[in-house]
Amino acid sequence: MQVSNLDRQVSAEDLKLVFSSRVGPLKKCTLMYDQSGKSTGTAVIHFVRVGDAAVAYNKFNGVPLDGRPMKIEILLTPTVAQAVLPPAQAPRALTNNNQGQQRNPGHSRGSRGGRGRGRGGRSHGEKRETKTVDQLDAEMNDYMQVDS
Q1: What does pTM read for this prediction?
Q2: Distance between CA 64 and CA 68 in Å, rounded?
Q3: Which pairs with CB-CB distance under 8 Å and at least 24 residues apart come from 87-93?
Q4: Rg of the chain over all Cα atoms, to the nearest angstrom
Q5: Residues 96/60, Cβ–Cβ less than 8 Å
Q6: Residue 6: how many CB atoms within 10 A of its CB?
Q7: What is the enclosing helix (H) or strand (E) of 41?
Q8: Domains identified in the chain and CATH numbers
Q9: pLDDT tens by residue, 118-148
Q10: How far is it between the farthest Cα atoms of the chain?
């Protein structure tokens, strides 16, 4: 998540204290600096648990820290967004209708063993396993492998 509109005197340690004590454990907290070494008033915070960013947003967006209201934005990769957001809020995949493209004669989509584009997929009737939030968090932690 990104926190902006911070007073220039707010340190990364201040942010760690606020968010880890009132929301949950942090993986990383990075305060941004300009070329002269002064704080830009923006920080990026990575929580251990993906859902904690939403908790932090609900608790602290607009809440003053050292006299300035924090502006919090949740930053998610499209894959994580689809996993944790309700379908109406998750980013939708871009589609390509092949409009304006010409195909080579004699080649059809079914020429790859009946599966079409991509690396394959589930057979008809196969169900995708539904994962819990804890399983998704564990996968994200394994993928990110960021030390605290």
Answers
A1: 0.55
A2: 5
A3: none
A4: 22
A5: no
A6: 23
A7: strand 39-47
A8: 2-79 (3.30.70.330)
A9: 555 555 566 667 778 888 888 777 777 655 4
A10: 69
pLDDT tens digit sequence for 88-124: 655 555 444 444 444 445 544 444 455 555 555 555 5
Bridge partners for 46 per DSSP: 28
Residue keyed to tokens 């967004």: 81
pLDDT at residue 11, rounded to an integer: 94
d(CA 57, CA 40): 20
d(CA 2, CA 70): 10
DSSP 79-146: HHHHHHS-TTTSPPPP----TT--PPTT--GGGTTT--SSS--PPTTPPPPPPPHHHHHHHHHHHH--
Looking up tokens 């994962």 gives 131
Token pair recorded at residue 11? 């340190």
The SS3 of residue 74 is coil
